[in-house]
Amino acid sequence: MHIHGLGVNVRDIEKRIRFCNYLSVAQIFLQDNILLNRPLSFSDIKPRLLGHWGSCPGINIAYANVKLRYPHMQFILGPGHGFPALQANLYYDGDLIDIYPEATPNLHGLEYLCKQFSWPYGFPSHASPMTPGIISEGGELGYSLATAYGAALGRPEKFIVALIGDGELETATALGSLNLNRLLNSRHNGHVLPILHLNGYKISAPTIYARSSERELLNLFRGFGYAPVIVDGTNTEEFQLVLANITPETFIIMQTPKGYTGPKELDGKKLEGNCASHQVPLPKAKSDRKQLQMLQTWLESYNFKELYDEFTEKH
C-alpha cells in the first residue's frame, strides 16, 4: 500500500519492523532453532537471559520509518540498552557483515547473530564500540542529543536522527542539550531530527513525561524553540506523513507502548505497556513450560519465515 502522493510502501516498512522485532526477541532468548522449524524446547533457550526488550519495538519503528525516507541518515541511539533492535537493523541492512563476516543474510548468519548476542566473547547486551559506527557504551543515558548536534557541527550535508528515551530525557544532560537547537540551527550545520521515544516507563516506574499532559509536553519543547509534533508510532502512515513535512525545528514525540507486540501479561502481571517488559519479560523460559509456550506464541506472531524468505531472496 502506497501513501498517496508520497511514494512510500507502508507494508515494506511494517515487514521490516516485524523482521527486526522477531530478531530482537530471538537474540535475547534463542541459542538454537532460530527459525522455529520445530516446537521450542528448553535446550533452545540460552542458559542466561540478559537483554532489554521493552524499548526494542520503538527503536525498530523509528529506525525503519526514517531509514526508508532518509537512507543516508546518521542514527544516534539514546537508549543503547535496546541493543538487540539496533543490531537487528544493522544486520538487515548488511552493515554488520563488513566487520563480522559470519553475519551473512542466511540461516548461518541468523544463528551466528542470535547465539553470539550477550554471549561470552560474542556481542555485548548493550551497544558498544564493537558495533559499526558506535563510539560509546550504550548503558549510559543522557548525551545522545548533544552527540547529534556535535556530529552536525560544520557538516551541512548531514541528516542526523537522535532517538531519546523518555527516561533519558529526565537527565540534566539531555535537558541541557535541548538548548543546542538555538545555537546550531543554521545553514552551516547539519539537520538534527530529535525523536523522543515516549513509551511511558523506565526500568521500574513511569517516566515524568509519561505522566505529563500533551499540552505540557508540547509547551516544554516549544519553549526550547522546537516545533513539536506527537506521532502514534504504531501508525506507519501517520509517521511517514510527519517525516515528509519536517522542518529544521521539528521535534517528534513518538508514542508506543513499552514492550509493544510482546506478551500482554504473565501470571496476572501486566507486561506490555508496563515497566515489567523493560528487560526479559519471560525470565524463566529456560525452565518453565508455560513461559516457554508463551515465547513460542510470541515469536510465531511475527510470521518470520515469510519475512526470512523475502529477505534471503533480496540478498
What is the fold-level CATH name, i.e. the topology?
A: Rossmann fold
* Helix-strand category: alpha/beta
Helicity, as a percent range: 25-40%
CATH architecture: 3-Layer(aba) Sandwich
User: Number of helical runs?
Assistant: 11
Uncertain segments are none
User: What does the radius of gyration come to?
Assistant: 19 Å
Largest sheet: 5 strands, parallel
The fraction of residues in strands falls at 5-15%
Strand order of the largest sheet: 1-2-3-5-4
Name the helix and strand elements from N-terminus to C-terminus, one letter apiece.
HHEHHHEHHEHEHEEEHH
Broad CATH class = Alpha Beta
The gross shape turns out to be: globular
N-C termini distance? 23 Å
Number of strands: 7
What does this structure look like?
By secondary structure, the chain is of the alpha/beta class. It has a single domain (10-314), classed as Rossmann fold, CATH 3.40.50.970. It contains 11 helices and 7 strands. Strands 1-2-3-5-4 form a 5-stranded parallel β-sheet, with helices on both faces. Strands 6-7 form a two-stranded antiparallel ribbon. Helix 1 (10-29) runs antiparallel to helix 2 (56-69). It is globular. The two termini are 23 Å apart.
